[in-house]
Amino acid sequence: MFVSYIPMLYTAFLVLIASVVVGHIVIRRFVLVPLARLSQTAVKSGLYADDANELYGLDREDEIGDLARNISHAQESLKHRQKLLDTVNRAAEALLISSEEETDQALKHSMGLIGKCLDVHSIQLWYNDEKDEKPNFFLAYEWTSDDKYKTKHWHNDEIATGSADSQVWFDLIMNTTSINSPFSALNPEIVGLFDKDLKSVALLPVAPEKKLFGFLQIDDFAKERTFSDDEMDIISSAALMFASVLNRNLQKELSLTDALTNTKNRRYLEEEVKKDFKLCQAQNTAFSVIIYDIDNFKKINDKYGHDVGDEVLRIITARSRAVLKQDTELVRYGGEEFVVALAGIPCEDALGIAHRLQDAISKTPFIIGEHELKITASFGVADRCADCFTLEDVISKADKALYTAKRNGRNAVVGQND
Fold first, then answer.
1. Residue 286 half-sphere exposure toward CB, CA atoms < 13 A
2. DSSP states of 69-104 as a string?
3. pTM of the prediction?
4. Alpha-carbon distance 175 to 158, whole Å?
5. Which of 217, 259, 369 is nearest to 307 (CA)?
6. How many degrees, rounded to 5, is the angle at CA 339 between CA 333 and CA 340?
């Protein structure tokens, strides 16, 4: 039955093919070709404007011109808004895929992406390290398009002077009020708090859960401008994202910091210093440890009280930091015990540092209230050697040297080979 329809189906198929071919020829010859020729003729005769403004009516001084310009402005605004949103998404992605070790670099990179998109010269992230229920602002991160734009304007100590300028500024920031203004239009009472070469500034407070965490500041040194509401909303979202990352870093820093002395704590030694030790081990470079203990510290607490004892710890911290290089971390290892880890420093050099620490502590009396105290400390020093496979091995050797110093009468420095 079906076989009898084959010739009919074959004929229909041929007719369909023929109609498609003929239709294509007809459309090409009688529609597409004439339109192409007409277009070429129009261009050659000047019927099409070479100038886009003329083509779209942007230069017209009438209602059509006004409408064309409004449409064009809206299109540009939408393009810029989309570009800024895409940039913030790229910044978020860079932060999400970064490891803990790369967070600082990723945050600066993300700020740079937004700074370039906005065509500004500087973006700064400040955080509020509140003291005695008063704002206390510190610059956490800064991106600049050029080193000459690095922050040199207002600082927290200037704000904290209690001047009229600072009060107006505090009223703004504490009420989480944004600043978005050409420099010439700034409130005259706060102009003195910013770099005089600024042309425009935007300042966006970051206050999740209505608690002031800090603020994002954007500087333009080239032109006077204000950011649109859309831009400010998107930048505010970025500021919240940056603050979230900064807060995570600060929380980690707090977990590794001793609250009393503001030195690093034992957890920092076990988590971060181990990385330095393993690197020195892999590169076969020196690594030394100084461990020191305040002599007769229990007697100080028993005689003068724990408040005086706490102040002794803070003073020793300050004197120790004055001896150590800026990038050398001081670790509070126990109650009155401190550790200094010295990557790349051999034992003989570490012994010299220990002697300087000893002198800084013992040679000048501690004046605490009405008390004048003679404080000393004992030191043990050791470095990475053949039988030291871990950081704990080096600390153990230094600790044995410390107890030798204690047995020898205290206020002494003893090395691992003494």
1. 12
2. HHHHHHHHHHHHHHHHHHHHHHHHHHHHH--GGGHH
3. 0.62
4. 20
5. 369
6. 150
C-alpha 327/C-alpha 24 separation (Å) is 78
- DSSP notation for 141-168: EEEESSGGGS--S--HHHHTT--HHHHH
Q: What are phi and psi of 98, to 5 degrees?
A: -80, 145
Low-confidence ranges of the chain (pLDDT < 70): 1-75, 131-135, 152-176, 209, 386
Q: What is the pLDDT of residue 30?
A: 55
Ordered by where they begin, the domains of the chain are 87-255 (3.30.450.40), 266-415 (3.30.70.270)
Q: What gap in Å lies between CA 358 and CA 353, rounded to an integer?
A: 9
Q: HSE (CB half, 13 Å, CA atoms) of 2? A: 0
> Can you give the pLDDT at residue 380?
96
> HSE (CB half, 13 Å, CA atoms) of 174?
11
What letter does residue 328 receive in the DSSP assignment? P
Give the residue numbers marked as catalytic: 336
Helices (H) and strands (E) in the chain, counts: 14, 12
Contact 263, 331 (CB under 8 A): yes
Tokens found for residue 214: 């800090």
Non-local CB neighbours of 192 within 8 Å, separated by 6+ positions: 165
